[in-house]
Amino acid sequence: MAETITYLEAVRRALIRALENDDRVFLLGEDIGPYGGAFKLTDGLAERFGSDRVIDTPIVETGLVGAAIGAAMAGLRPVVEMQFIDFISCAFNQLTNFAATTHFRWGAAAPIVVRGPSGGGVHAGPFHSQMVESFFLNTPGLKIVIPSTVEDAYRLLLGAIEDPDPVLFLEQKRLYRTLKGEFDPEWSPLPPGSAALRREGDDVTIISYGAMVHSVLTAAETLAAEGIGANVLDMRSLCPLDREALLGAAKRTGKVLIVHEDNVTGGAGGELAALISEHAFEDLDAPVRRLGALDVPIPYAGPLEDASLPNPTTIAKAARELARW
Amino acid sequence: MSTEIKMPQMGESIAEGTLTRWFKKAGDTIKRDEPLFEISTDKVDAEVPAPADGVLEKILVEEGTTVEVNTVVAMLGDGSGTATSAGSPAEESATPAPSPATETAPATAAGGKSSAPPPPASREIAALEIAAPEIAAVARTAPLAANDSDRSKVRSSPLVRRIAREHGIDDLSAISGSGAGGRVTKHDILGFIDRRNGSGGAAAKDGAADGGATAAPTTPRPAAPPAAHGEVLPVLGLPRNHVTVERMTVMRRKIAEHMIHSRRTSAHVQSVFEADMTRVVALRNRNKGAFQAKNGVKLTFTPFFMKAVIDALREFPWLNASLDGDEVVVHHSIHFGIAVALDGGLIVPVIRNAEELNLTGLQKRVTDLATRARSKQLVPEEVAGGTFTITNPGQYGGLFGIPIINQPQVAILGIGGIQRRPVVVEGDAIAIRDMAYLCISYDHRLVDGAMADQFMARVKQNLENFDDAELR
């Protein structure tokens, strides 16, 4: 019988497999060594692989991304942990001006992975609950992956580590210990860039990624009971973007709702909506609708955080309106 | 500041209206309550007054165009030229849904005064309650052809317009929209294509569903540019240049719908009686001069028939009833509908509480309503809420006609022409009498033959023994 593991354990096992299989792989991060990481994701790795492959760093994100870029250019495969993904903004210059551009400026690849817990759902407020994908979606040269399932967390992380380009691997902390799934040791690495159809339906297409996919699927159940068939696409990767799947899903129903945990304004949903209206205009039976976090810094207070983020009720409501349009 | 002027809701069951005439043109200065435009709905024609003083900035809906209730037809400015919507943003997004909530705003736009009356109490569109747009018929000849501007006025979506193009559908207004605000959705147009193709449109549906890869044009049928030569009419298969094709007027379309609706709804049964009208004819001839001198209107036979029917209805209240599901609704008052022929259609004005009127009162009301019906000046409540109807197929010498019930009523009486005929009378004699055939159509769901015939026997008796107390 297959072993059931958490989303967090999937990430951890992917790191272990990469460390085992590829000597070029090493980890950099704050408190990831003997302490085992803020979420205990790297617990035991330093002991197992040694402190020269699981390296504790000072609290200086720009320094550790910079060091990773240098190591990658020298032929290694560094995996950097942001203790909370919010801190990635401290490494913004290293990521946007260096990691993203070295290939184009110098013909030198910088195959780094920067991974860490993103998003809300744990009432930790700003600094510890944000989504950051849209900061980087505007920067060509960075790949962005956001896994929603145990299998994807494992396979996409392996795919990211093998990828020749810098990859931001945005885990969802709310799924770390709440989401469980069966583990298959035969799982192969999955390169960034493919979407996954999570549910088929003919009335409304709901496009999402990350933890929101689960809220969308819950909403889809509600909608199904009302006779509204939801077609649910999990983008998984924002760059590269699976345009074929995106446009196909949009065309299937002609009515598209995009749901993400990030704020609506300037969020990835706008980009997806624009692509759909550019390339599938004549297949649209309604305006593309976006649903995301309210345009406020994510609140600490539980009820306020809950109110600021999309949830199955608000998703179902938006989809219902769209179906009726 | 500009105010939106919207198509008013003339009756709660009304979804659209035809703007038949503008009394003003863009740029005209107008006064509050001055007639601004004229509309024709399936219930009534009405003049809509200006909601306020101002300048008619822009006409958005041309004459002859049929639009949904609450559609903005014009902008009324104060002359300053600043355009601001009168409606709240929330209302804007939901514009045309004819709900009580949205009705409050248009009420001001349509002018709360007399010529834009509140919706009549009637729940149903009665089969014959139709207004006559003669003016519209003239104004309409040109703009009715389906063209791009027409198409763009029907709310749809890019997908629907593409499917329409691929299937040669030029005029989306033929498709009833189920989406928000009457929008034609993908589902609506695919259903329309299915029905048009006669059946199993599964192929078309699949084609569109997968993004149109297989939605190649199937049976393209260009829909009706009236002047086109060499084309063939899709349904009749006749060459277009041998016939004249014109669009049904709103009234014609509504009559068609209502008549078919009634035939589908009621179990029509007829019964024909013959009444000896000699006494009534004599009464009328003897009194008509004095009656006109005294009352200013001609004395016709109509109030005699009405009086006879009213008295009989009091005895047989189920003939003055409606069916609501499986409940029998018996009306306490008699709201008497009289079918009036118009050019290109007909209308049924209703005399309310007819049981309270005497012969003189009935004649005055009949004359007034018929006159105003012909000059299209009825207001909606005057053509709504009838409980029993008479019609007069004998006008041109017909012996009798078999009428169709005016829903949601359960009976209609057709009055044949009065004719002098040899008749066998008491004592084995043959006499010349004024005779008329009366044909009732009744709804057998509620009324059985025995009751209908007893009712008719009473009408006949009332006519043959007409109480002339009032005329003495």
What is shown here, in short?
Chain A is α/β, with parallel strands linked by helices and 325 residues long. Chain A contains twelve helices and 14 strands.
Tally of extended strands of chain A? 14
Main beta sheet of chain B: 7 strands, mixed
Main beta sheet strand tally, sense and closure of chain A: 7 strands, mixed
Uncertain parts of chain B: 83-152, 200-229
* Proportion in β-strands of chain B: 15-25%
Give the fraction of residues assigned to helices of chain B: 25-40%
Sum up the overall morphology of chain A in one term. Answer: globular
Overall pLDDT score of chain B? 77
Give a count of the beta strands of chain B, DSSP E runs of length 2 or more: 19
Uncertain runs of chain A with pLDDT below 50, 5 residues or more? none
Separate helix tally of chain A: 12
Secondary-structure element order of chain A, as H and E?
Answer: EHEHEHEHHEHEHEEEEHEEHEHEHH
Query: Structural class from helices and strands of chain B?
Result: alpha+beta
Percentage of β-strand residues of chain A: 15-25%
User: Any idea what the radius of gyration of chain A is?
Assistant: 19 Å
Residues in helices of chain A, as a percent range: 25-40%
Distance between the termini of chain A: 47 Å
The helix/strand class of chain A is alpha/beta
Shape annotation of chain B: globular
Number of helices of chain B: 12
